[in-house]
Design brief:
Layout: H1 16-27, E1 31-32, H2 33-36, H3 42-47, E2 52-55, H4 81-91, E3 96-101, H5 112-125, E4 130-134, H6 142-149, E5 155-157, H7 167-170, H8 176-188, E6 192-199, H9 205-217, E7 222-227, H10 244-257, E8 261-264, H11 274-280
Parallel strand pairs: 2-3, 3-4, 4-5, 5-6, 6-7, 7-8
Antiparallel strand pairs: 1-2
Helix pairs in contact: 4-5, 5-6, 9-10
C-alpha cells in the first residue's frame, strides 16, 4: 500500500458540535455516509454541524470496488425514516442538508418512492432549508428518476465516479453511459445537476478532461474532484496520489469548460462544502 503524502494528513480533533451531531445521529438511529463511507472530512463537517444522511438502510445491493459501504441483502424501507431525517435536520439547525442512499436494486422502484417521501417530509418540517440529494443511477430509468425530481430538491447529484475506461474496473453494475443518461434526465427536469469524480485510479489528465466535457454536455453544472483513498485492503489500491497543484489545474479546466461551481482538492468528496455550491449557483 502506498504511503500517503503530507497533503493527505487528516485532522481528527473534535468539538462540542461534533459530539452533538454524533448524539443526534445515534439517538435517531440514522445512517450517514460520513461514517459508512469512511469519509476523511467527517470530523471537519461534524464540527461544523453538518452531516450527509444516508437513507434506505446501510446495506447496498451493489459491491463497487472503491466503496466502503457494506453490501448484501437490505431490510425493507423504514416508514419512520422520513420523519427521523426531517427531525434531525431541524435539531442540527441546518441551512443546507445533503441526503444520499445505498443502491436498492432489490426494490421494484429501486427506492424512488421512499426518496420522494423523505424529501417531501424534510421540506415540510424544514421549509427554509435547502435540500441536496445524491442519488444512485436507478438504471437510467426516467420514470424513477422523475419521481425524485418531482419532489423538487434544490440540487440533484449523481456521481460519475471515474473515467469511461476505468468504470468497469471500479463500479460493479453502473455504467458510464447510464450515469450520463441519469445526469441528462436530472438536467432536463430543470433541477440543478451535480456530479463527482475520483482521481488517482490510473486515469490520465486527458481522460479527466473528456469526462468533465461529457458531464457538462449532459447538463451537469456543479462538479467535485477528489483523491481516491483505499478504504481497506479488500478494495482497489491507489494508483497515484495526485498533487494539489494538479487538482487546481483540474479546477481551471472545469471552469473553462463552463461549470458554474467546482470543488477540486485531495480531500474533496461529493458533499464537501455543499452549502457553498448552492450559494454560488443561486
Amino acid at each position: 500500500m502506498r504511503q500517503k503524502p503530507d497533503w493527505l494528513k487528516i485532522k481528527l480533533d473534535t468539538s462540542s458540535n461534533f459530539s452533538e451531531t454524533d448524539k443526534i445521529v445515534k439517538e435517531h438511529n440514522l445512517h450517514t455516509i460520513c461514517s459508512s463511507g469512511k469519509c476523511p472530512n467527517k470530523a471537519e463537517c461534524w464540527n461544523r454541524g453538518t452531516a450527509t444522511f444516508m437513507i434506505l438502510g446501510d446495506t447496498c445491493t451493489r459491491a463497487c470496488k472503491f466503496c466502503a459501504t457494506k453490501t448484501g441483502k437490505p431490510l425493507p424501507p423504514d416508514p419512520t425514516e422520513p420523519g427521523r431525517v426531517a427531525a434531525s435536520i431541524k435539531l442540527m439547525k441546518l441551512k443546507h442538508s445533503v441526503i444520499t442512499s445505498v443502491t436498492r436494486d432489490d426494490l421494484p422502484d429501486q427506492g424512488a418512492t421512499q426518496w420522494a417521501e423523505v424529501i417531501r417530509v424534510c421540506k415540510e418540517v424544514n421549509p427554509l432549508v435547502t435540500i441536496e440529494v445524491l442519488i444512485p443511477d436507478f438504471d437510467g430509468k426516467k420514470e424513477l428518476i422523475q419521481i425524485v425530481a418531482d419532489s423538487k430538491p434544490d440540487i440533484i447529484a449523481h456521481n460519475i465516479e471515474t473515467v469511461s475506461r476505468l468504470t468497469s474496473l471500479v463500479r460493479s453494475k453502473a455504467s458510464y453511459k447510464t450515469s450520463l443518461q441519469t445526469i441528462k434526465i436530472i438536467s432536463e427536469s430543470g433541477i440543478k445537476t451535480k456530479s463527482g469524480l475520483m482521481v488517482g485510479l490510473g486515469e490520465t489528465e486527458q481522460e479527466v478532461t473528456e469526462t468533465l466535457k461529457d458531464l457538462h454536455n449532459h447538463g451537469c453544472r456543479i462538479v467535485t474532484i477528489g483523491q481516491y483513498l483505499q478504504p481497506s485492503k479488500a478494495h482497489l489500491e491507489v494508483d497515484e496520489y495526485i498533487h494539489p497543484e494538479q487538482f487546481e489545474k483540474f479546477k481551471i479546466i472545469a471552469l473553462e469548460i463552463g461549470f458554474e461551481y467546482v470543488e477540486s482538492a485531495p480531500l474533496v468528496r461529493s458533499s464537501y462544502m455543499a452549502e457553498k455550491a448552492i450559494q454560488s449557483c443561486h
